[in-house]
């Protein structure tokens, strides 16, 4: 009898620990906007500074990667450019409202197609 009570108690303790694991929120479960909104004014300035530095660094890396591709002859340049066919298609765009509420007039968009 005593063993069954201890077994039940141990089972309940184990189940309670599993339940508490599922309700624990991970630190990265919030979106960036939610994390940013709880920061103080000084912390927001620091976070914005780091974001700006990081995005600038990403742009620099992209720029230099594109330059390396342009300078290094690769598979894309081994085929003559004359084999590519280019044509332009005019697509009519009807008047519409963008998600931010801006009303766009009907217009024509030109799209280049490379085959």
Any overview of this molecule?
- By secondary structure, the protein is an alpha+beta fold.
- The protein has one domain (29-114).
- It has four helices and four strands, in the order H-H-H-H-E-E-E-E.
- The chain has helices spanning 2-23, 32-37, 41-71, 75-78, and strands spanning 86-93, 96-97, 103-104, 107-114.
- The strands form two sheets. It has a two-stranded antiparallel sheet with strand order 1-4.
- Strand 2 and strand 3 (103-104) form a beta hairpin.
- It is extended, with a radius of gyration of 29 Å.
- The mean pLDDT is 74.
Pick out its properties.
two-stranded antiparallel ribbon; alpha+beta
Give me the secondary-structure topology.
Blueprint: H1 2-23, H2 32-37, H3 41-71, H4 75-78, E1 86-93, E2 96-97, E3 103-104, E4 107-114
Antiparallel strand pairs: 1-4, 2-3
Q: Biggest β-sheet, characterized?
A: 2 strands, antiparallel
Provide the number of structural domains: 1
Order of helical and strand elements: HHHHEEEE
The coarse overall form would be extended
What is the gist of this entry?
Helices cover 55% and strands 17% of the residues.
């Amino acid at each position: 009898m005593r063993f069954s009570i201890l077994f039940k108690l141990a089972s309940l303790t184990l189940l309670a620990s599993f339940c508490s694991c599922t309700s624990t929120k991970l630190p990265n479960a919030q979106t960036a906007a939610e994390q940013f909104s709880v920061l103080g004014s000084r912390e927001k300035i620091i976070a914005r500074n780091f974001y700006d530095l990081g995005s600038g660094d990403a742009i620099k890396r992209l720029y230099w990667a594109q330059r390396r591709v342009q300078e290094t002859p690769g598979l894309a340049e081994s085929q003559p450019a004359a084999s590519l066919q280019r044509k332009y298609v005019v697509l009519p765009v009807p008047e519409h409202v963008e998600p931010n509420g801006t009303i766009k007039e009907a217009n024509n968009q030109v799209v280049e197609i490379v085959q």
